Amino acid sequence: MENKMIRKPYAAISCLFITFNLHAKPFEVHATAATDLPIQRSDIMDDLAIWVNTKDPSKSLILATNKEEPYGGLYVYSLDGKLKESYQIGPINNVDIRANFSYDHTVMDIAAATYKKDKGLAFFAVHPETGKIAYLGLGDHTFEKTPYGICLQKQEDAFYAIVTFKYTGAEKWQFWAENNRIHMEKVLSYPIQSLAEGCVVDDHTGTVFIGEEDRGIWAFPEKAPGKMIARVGENGLTADVEGLALYGGKYLIASSQGSCSYNIYKPSPPYSFLGSFKITPGTHEGTEETDGIDVTEANLGGPYTNGLFVAHDNRSSKGGGSNFKLVPWDEIQRGLN
User: Fold this and answer.
1) Residues with Cβ within 8 Å of residue 179, at least 6 apart in sequence
2) Is the pLDDT of residue 318 over 60?
3) pTM value?
4) Which string of b and e fits 107-134 if b means at least 16 CB within 10 Å?
5) Of all helices (H) and strands (E), which one includes residue 333?
6) Reduced to 3 DSSP states, what percent helix, strand and coil does the chain have, rounded to the nearest 5?
7) What digits encode the pLDDT tens for the residues 151-198?
8) Which is the most buried residue in 4, 19, 304, 320, by most CB within 10 A?
9) Could you give the domains of the chain?
């Protein structure tokens, strides 16, 4: 999402108004941790991807994006919310990650982010056992339009990036490594006619989900025409439709930014609406005007034995600045039961 500083002071009021006018009130959950606030005291953090450490899940990481100069780049947090390191390569907007990518005869996990400054994709290697991160540089293609959102897909040994662009359009690109460089080739385009950012792919079914901010959520099955499965104005879904995430093959979660809540759908036909929730104040603050989200069903230990949900919060009352809130999946599951 772009910075919309004029409307920020009214966020809490608008969220409250919308919540009380929904036909079904969202259930409430609470965060068990929050990431450290950035140096910049404005809404400069945006999206995230959870990296699961399969050797020691308690040492899993949150890879988050800072989208503004002069500190733009990839920020890495531990599960207690502490900043471990940052890669200030320039403003990046969205990020996603997949495992078992081959680069320079080495198998690693690969993260890709939309790099606004040079209209490209920035790639990072994540060591699958240690979590050590290395910046690999930009892919070999420069887009004509500014890349905005991104989600990755793995089909057998092939890797793809679905990229949304500022104001209109979305495309699928295959990428691979050769001669210590990431190469890219366009595969197809999606008929998105207005601004879209959030997207996610179900690697098991091949279905691509894209959030068109003012209209709703699209599903593009691998072997069937795309269709809008959830519309703004239905079941409390409120513009902007922002981050999308999948909890295994069971739940599709969408950030309903205008209502400061999260809608949950079945990620397969008939794409039923299952409920909604809000992250409200408890030990930590709640969230407002969420951009990016991610979720994992992996057992990360501690409060996250059945998974972890992480959401962007557009500002903190503790000196301003945006960060991310961590919620045990158990809390969300209880609300759905």
Assistant:
1) none
2) yes
3) 0.94
4) ebbbbbbbbbeebbbbbbbbebeebebe
5) helix 329-336
6) 10, 50, 45
7) 999 999 999 999 999 888 999 999 999 999 999 999 999 999 999 999
8) 304
9) 17-336 (2.120.10.30)
